[in-house]
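re: that chain from earlier
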Amino acid sequence: MSYKEIPNAENESNPERALSREQIMEELLVRIMSSHEKFQIKVERELSNAEGIYLLEVLSPDTGRRYVYQRKGSFEGSGQKIESSGTTIRSEDLDDGYSRTIADYDPIAGRWINQ
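^ sequence. v structure.
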């Protein structure tokens, strides 16, 4: 897997890693497929900066859910500030608005941890 090194203001010796679009989509698809046999997805919003994608929202109309990837950091985008204390994937129920974190990225181990 290829990663881009991003300086981490809190700890320069442990840089945050920006995942590629392909790596993000792979993780999202694995999580959607594990909970539903039939699905299709549509990218709703994708925001990036020079280091890579920091927000990716995909809609799964078949499941009634939105899945959101958000990279650790504070970003200005689309007229709003987007902040995250960690790199996560969340699942949002479109019917009731309930949102929960389904995975956190561990940059030291270089892997996702299910929640």
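The helical segments are 21-35.
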